[in-house]
Amino acid sequence: MPRSAPKRLRIPGIGVDTSVMPLGLAPDGTVRVPPIAAHSPAGWYDGSPTPGQTGPAVVLGHVTVGRYGDGVFRHLDRMRPGDKVLVDRADGSVATFAVERVQTVAKSHFPTQEVYGNVDHPALRLITCGGTKLSGGAGYTDNVIVYASLVDGS
């Protein structure tokens, strides 16, 4: 599929239907995350391919959003192989992905190359926090990562 920014992300199996905002890099070189706010959307790392292009399109979302409660990816860890993820794109097309696997990893062992490294097909990576919630609002111990591949682009 040609380059076209994602506008909406739908994951019927876990009840996600959210807008998608572009995310760049923070001053420390890490990918920014969506704001901690009520109804915070998912965010697409605009340094990655757009969903449907060859390579791994990376979308991040919160599991919780501080005092606002559940985040858009609250149930990302419930996804299973075969589940569908639909991305509505700015050009009016829809990129449909099928989940291949779901991985929970310690943040200290984040698989950067596996998530952001080149692949020879259109892929999607969904990322949120997981594991044990740390005290004092310091986040979570782990990341949940969903790996999916394009099955239809129309």
Uncertain runs: none
Terminal CA distance reads 9 Å
What is the CATH homology-level superfamily?
Sortase
Write down the domain tally: 1
Q: What's the CATH class, please? A: Mainly Beta
Mean pLDDT: 95
**Main beta-sheet strand count, sense and barrel state:** 8 strands, mixed, barrel
Please report which band the strand proportion falls in: under 5%, 5-15%, 15-25%, 25-35%, 35-45% or over 45%: 35-45%
Largest sheet, spatial ordering of strands = 1-2-3-4-7-8-6-5
Shape field: globular
The level of helicity is under 10%
Count of distinct strands = 8
CATH topological fold name: Sortase, Chain: A
Summing up helix and strand content along with how strands pair, one would put the structural category as mainly beta
Number of helices: 1
CATH architecture type: Beta Barrel
In short:
With 154 residues, the chain is mostly beta strands. The protein has one helix spanning 112-116, and strands at residues 6-11, 16-23, 42-45, 55-60, 84-89, 94-106, 122-133, 140-153. The protein is globular and about 45 Å long.
Give me the secondary-structure topology:
Elements: E1 6-11, E2 16-23, E3 42-45, E4 55-60, E5 84-89, E6 94-106, H1 112-116, E7 122-133, E8 140-153
Parallel strand pairs: 2-3, 4-7
Antiparallel strand pairs: 1-2, 1-5, 3-4, 5-6, 6-8, 7-8
Keywords: Hydrolase
Protein name: Class F sortase
InterPro entries: Sortase, Sortase_dom-sf, Sortase_F
